[in-house]
TrEMBL record:
Gene Ontology terms: cellular component: cytosol
Catalytic activity entry: shikimate + ATP = 3-phosphoshikimate + ADP + H(+)
Residues noted as binding substrate in the record, renumbered to the chain: 38, 68, 92, 151
Protein name according to UniProt: Shikimate kinase
Keyword Amino-acid biosynthesis included in the entry's annotation: yes
Binding positions for Mg(2+) per the UniProt entry: 20
Pathway assignment: Metabolic intermediate biosynthesis; chorismate biosynthesis; chorismate from D-erythrose 4-phosphate and phosphoenolpyruvate: step 5/7
Length: 188
C-alpha cells in the first residue's frame, strides 16, 4: 500500500519542466486529487463565457495582463478551498504573477520546484508548438532563457524542495525518484 501524503504539494517550474505530468503521476501514487491551475482556469473561463478554450487561446483572448489577473483569481479560489492533501500543478508563470499574493502560495502546500535544464524544456516546447508569449520573438529560445532567469528568484522563494532534472528520462522513472525524495523530506 502507498504511503500517506501528509501535506498538499505544490509543483512549479519553467514551462514544460513536467509539472502537469509529474503532478498527476504523484497524485495517482498517493491516491489524492490532482489539480492543475491551467485546467481550473479553462473551466472557469468556460463557466463565465460559455465557450471552451485551451489555456494558450485564453492568453491570446485576454492579453498578458488580463490573463495574469484571471490566473491570480483562479489560484486564490483554489487556495481558499478547504482541501486535504492533494497535488497542485501551477502554470509556469504563477510564482512570478504580480497579482498573486506570495502568502497565498506559501500557504498552499509544500513547494516542489522542478529545476529542469532549460534546453531540455525548450526542446519539448518547440516540439509542441510555441505558445503566444514566445511565438512573436525572432529568437524564441533567447526569450525563453530571459524569461526563466527573471522568474528564477520567485521559484526559489517558494521551494521547500528543489528537484533537478538534468536529462530526458521517462516521466514514470522521474516521478518514482521524485516521490521518494518527497517522502524523505516530509518525514517528521
Ligand atoms: N519526463 C518526461 N519525458 C519526456 N517528456 C515529458 C516528460 N515530462 C513531460 N513530458 C512532455 O513534455 C510536455 C510538457 O509536459 P507538462 O507536464 O505539460 O509540463 P508543464 O506542465 O511543466 O508545462 C508534454 O508533452 C509531456 O508529455
Ligand atoms: O509560463 C507561462 O507564462 C505559462 C505557462 C503555461 O503553463 P505550463 O507551464 O504548465 O505549460 C500556461 O499557464 C500559460 O500558457 C502561461
Ligand atoms: Mg502544465
Amino acid at each position: 500500500m502507498a504511503e500517506r501524503l501528509t501535506r498538499p504539494l505544490l509543483f512549479f517550474g519553467i514551462k514544460h519542466c513536467g509539472k502537469s505530468t509529474l503532478g498527476r503521476l504523484t497524485a495517482e501514487h498517493f491516491g489524492v486529487k490532482f489539480v492543475d491551475t491551467d485546467l481550473e482556469l479553462e473551466s472557469r473561463f468556460q463557466m463565465l463565457n460559455g465557450c471552451p478554450l485551451p489555456t494558450r487561446d485564453i492568453f491570446r483572448e485576454l492579453g498578458e495582463e488580463g490573463f495574469r489577473r484571471f490566473e491570480a483569481e483562479t489560484v486564490e479560489a483554489l487556495a481558499a478551498q478547504q482541501a486535504g492533501p492533494r497535488v497542485v500543478a501551477l502554470g509556469g508563470g504563477v510564482p512570478a504573477n504580480p497579482f498573486v499574493e506570495p502568502e497565498v502560495l506559501k500557504k498552499m502546500g509544500f513547494g516542489v520546484y522542478l529545476a529542469i535544464r532549460p534546453e531540455i524544456a525548450f526542446e519539448r516546447v518547440r516540439r509542441r508548438g510555441l505558445p503566444p508569449f514566445l511565438a512573436s520573438f525572432a529568437d524564441p529560445y533567447a526569450e525563453f532563457l530571459r524569461m526563466n532567469r527573471q522568474r528564477e528568484a520567485a521559484y526559489r522563494s517558494y521551494a521547500d524542495l528543489t528537484f533537478p532534472i538534468e536529462r530526458e528520462e521517462a516521466a514514470s522513472a522521474v516521478a518514482e525518484k521524485l516521490i521518494q525524495i518527497i517522502l524523505t523530506e516530509l518525514k517528521p
